[in-house]
Design goal:
77% of the residues lie in helices and 0% in strands. By secondary structure, it is mostly helical. The chain has one domain. The longest helix has 21 residues. The mean pLDDT is 86.
Length: 171
């Protein structure tokens, strides 16, 4: 991707994330975003069609970052989860604001999909795979949500440790 395109998208996303955390998703307009990012309306629409597209872009960035991390060993899995939790912590204000506003459903779907990908790599094949995937994904998502709601204190190591226990038991 061209450096200028990447820079513009990052500026738009940074403005979007800051404004959602400050004002909430529903009360945010495209005009607010372009004013904060200091770009023109045409520039915004050259990169994104809607606020939802901008929100999805944030999750695409997260996926791309996480895809670079190995997950083949238990240590890799813990490092991967630590990176996911670090991202959640650094975007806690955005997560909380989205949960309260109109973008929450889309954010929940996107984040749940990432969580399911994490869990899918840990769950073996077999007839109980779907059930185990749903249960472990739900547990991990709920733990992350509770951690963020409680102020995302610490590194989330208790979530990583509990996930290790659940994955080991599931195998």
């Amino acid at each position: 991707m061209d450096r200028r395109v990447r820079k513009t998208r990052e500026a738009l996303y940074s403005a979007f994330a800051a404004l959602v955390a400050e004002r909430g998703y529903d009360r945010l307009s495209i005009q607010d975003i372009i004013d904060e990012a200091d770009v023109g309306r045409t520039t915004f629409y050259a990169h994104f069609k809607t606020k939802d597209d901008l929100l999805r872009f944030g999750f695409i960035r997260l996926r791309e970052h996480l895809e670079l991390l190995p997950r083949s060993t238990p240590q890799d899995r813990r490092a991967f989860l630590a990176a996911l939790l670090g991202h959640a912590k650094s975007h806690a204000g955005l997560f909380v604001a989205l949960a309260r506003g109109g973008g929450g459903g889309l954010a929940e779907t996107e984040f749940s999909s990432i969580i399911e990908d994490v869990v899918a790599s840990e769950v073996g094949e077999g007839e109980r795979r779907g059930t185990m995937l749903a249960m472990l994904s739900g547990a991990l998502l709920t733990a992350i949500r509770r951690w963020i709601d409680a102020g995302a204190k610490g590194t989330g190591s208790e979530i990583i440790e509990a996930f290790d226990v659940l994955v080991t038991a599931a195998r």
